[in-house]
C-alpha cells in the first residue's frame, strides 16, 4: 500500500515484446481509458484504444438490434480528445490511436454476424468522433495544411500527412456540407499522390456529386498509369455507399479493367469480396452472385486466379446466421453444379461445401 495512492494499479502487460502474443485480460472501460492516455508503451496504448472502440461498436450493435437507446460515447470521446490534444508530439501514434478497427475485424469479433449493422454503427461512431472533436480536427488540419512543406519523403512528413488526411476524413464524414469543398480543394492542390488519394478517400463513402466529379478526374488524370488506377478500382470496391455492388459491376466494363490481368481482378473483385463485408454479404445475395459471375468469366482464361477468387466464399458454415448460410450455400452449389469448370475451381468449390465444421 502506498501512502496517498487510492486507485489500484493497472496492468500494462507484455511491454517491448518483439513478437505477437495473445494475452487475454479483462480490463474495465475506465482502465482502458487510463491506459490510452497514460501508458508509456505505444503498442499497449493502441491495443487499449482498439479494445475501447470494439466495445463501443459492439454495444451500439446490440442496442440497434434491440431497438434500444444507443450507449453514451462521452467518456470515450473525452479520452480521444486527450489523445488528439497531444497530437503534435507524435503524429504517427495519434493516427493509430484514432483509427477505428476495420470492418472485417469487427465482423469477426462481434456476434451475431451482421455486417450491415457493424458498418452502420462503426460509421455512427466515426461520425461522433468527427463531430465531437471537430474543433481539434479542424485546427490540426488547418495547421498541417498551412505549414506543409513541399513534398519530400521523410518519416516526419509522412506522419504529418497521415494525421492531416485522417483529420480531413473525420471532418468530411461529420459535416459534409461544410468540408466537402475543402476535400476537393485538397485534391486539386495536392503535390503528391498520397495527398491526392487521401483527399479522394475522404469523399469515397459519400453519396455526393463531388465524389463522382473527383473520381472521374482521377480516372482521366492517371489514365497512363495502370498501377495507380488499380488504387482507383479498389477505392470504389470498398466504398460504404449502398450502390457499391452496382459500381463494381459497372467498373468491370471500364477500359482499364482486364480479366486477363490478375492485378486488375484483385484490385476490383478481390478488394470487394475481401474488404467490403457489408457489400459482399448484401442481404439480397447480389454480392455472392457477382463473385460467381466473375469466377465463371475468369475461369475460362486463368483457372488459378478463378480458384483464388472462389476461396473468398470461405465456408458458409463459418457463420452461425442461418440466412447467410443458406444464401451462400445455394450460390456455391449452383456454381459447383455447372459443367466445364476447371479442375482448380471445382476442387475449391467441393472442399468449401464439405467443410461443415464451424470455426
UniProtKB/TrEMBL annotation:
GO molecular function, one term: aminopeptidase activity
Keyword Protease: yes
Coiled-coil ranges (or none): none
UniProtKB keywords: Aminopeptidase, Hydrolase, Protease
Gene3D superfamilies linked to this entry: Peptidase M1, alanyl aminopeptidase, C-terminal domain
Residues of the Peptidase M1 alanyl aminopeptidase C-terminal domain: 30-353
PANTHER family: PUROMYCIN-SENSITIVE AMINOPEPTIDASE
Name under which the protein is recorded: Aminopeptidase N
Species assigned in the record: mine drainage metagenome
Amino acid at each position: 500500500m502506498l501512502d496517498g495512492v487510492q486507485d489500484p494499479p493497472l496492468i500494462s502487460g507484455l511491454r517491448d515484446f518483439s513478437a505477437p502474443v495473445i494475452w487475454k485480460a479483462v480490463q474495465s472501460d475506465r482502465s482502458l481509458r487510463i491506459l490510452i492516455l497514460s501508458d508509456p508503451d505505444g503498442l499497449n496504448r493502441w491495443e487499449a484504444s482498439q479494445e475501447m472502440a470494439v466495445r463501443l461498436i459492439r454495444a451500439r450493435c446490440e442496442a440497434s438490434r434491440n431497438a434500444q437507446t444507443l450507449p453514451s460515447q462521452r467518456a470515450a470521446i473525452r479520452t480521444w480528445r486527450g489523445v488528439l490534444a497531444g497530437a503534435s508530439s507524435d503524429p504517427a501514434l495519434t493516427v493509430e490511436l484514432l483509427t477505428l478497427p476495420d470492418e472485417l475485424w469487427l465482423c469477426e469479433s462481434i456476434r451475431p454476424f451482421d455486417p450491415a449493422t457493424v458498418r452502420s454503427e462503426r460509421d455512427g461512431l466515426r461520425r461522433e468522433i468527427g463531430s465531437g472533436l471537430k474543433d481539434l480536427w479542424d485546427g490540426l488540419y488547418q495547421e498541417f495544411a498551412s505549414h506543409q512543406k513541399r513534398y519530400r519523403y521523410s518519416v516526419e512528413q509522412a506522419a504529418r500527412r497521415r494525421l492531416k488526411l485522417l483529420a480531413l476524413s473525420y471532418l468530411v464524414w461529420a459535416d459534409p456540407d461544410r468540408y466537402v469543398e475543402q476535400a476537393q480543394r485538397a485534391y486539386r492542390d495536392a503535390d503528391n499522390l498520397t495527398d491526392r488519394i487521401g483527399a479522394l478517400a475522404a469523399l469515397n463513402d459519400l453519396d455526393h456529386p463531388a465524389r463522382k466529379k473527383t473520381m472521374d478526374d482521377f480516372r482521366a488524370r492517371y489514365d497512363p498509369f495502370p498501377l495507380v488506377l488499380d488504387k482507383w478500382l479498389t477505392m470504389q470496391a470498398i466504398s460504404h455507399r449502398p450502390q457499391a455492388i452496382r459500381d463494381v459491376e459497372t467498373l468491370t466494363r471500364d477500359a482499364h479493367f482486364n480479366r486477363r490481368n490478375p492485378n486488375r481482378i484483385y484490385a476490383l473483385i478481390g478488394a470487394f469480396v475481401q474488404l467490403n463485408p457489408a457489400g459482399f454479404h448484401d442481404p439480397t445475395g447480389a454480392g455472392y452472385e457477382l463473385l460467381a459471375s466473375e469466377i465463371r468469366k475468369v475461369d475460362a482464361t486463368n483457372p488459378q486466379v478463378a480458384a483464388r477468387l472462389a476461396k473468398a466464399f470461405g465456408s458458409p458454415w463459418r457463420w452461425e446466421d442461418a440466412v447467410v448460410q443458406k444464401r451462400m450455400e445455394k450460390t456455391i452449389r449452383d456454381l459447383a453444379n455447372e459443367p466445364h469448370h476447371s479442375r482448380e475451381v471445382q476442387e475449391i468449390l467441393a472442399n468449401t461445401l464439405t467443410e461443415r465444421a464451424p470455426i
